[in-house]
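Show me any protein, fold above all:
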Amino acid sequence: MSEKIAVIGLGYVGLPLAVSLARKFEVTGFDVNISRINELKRGHDRTAEIEPEVLQKSTLTVTHDSTQLLAHHVYIVTVL
């Protein structure tokens, strides 16, 4: 069984973690900030932790819709 991982909070800790985990697992990144999600979907990380080309090539899925996290097996919270 392939683990489905949710990373909650896509700041300077959560986003690099989510991108790294997405190399081996199915990962959904969640953030309540819709602007942040839209930026990430366009391949822009305002924290400058992830290069645009790395973000664009990643299999990471990002969302602000918490219902998309229901079927996940592991939840990692990276918020203050």
Notes: The longest strand covers residues 4-8. The chain has a mean pLDDT of 95. The beta strands are 4-8, 26-30, 61-63, 74-77.
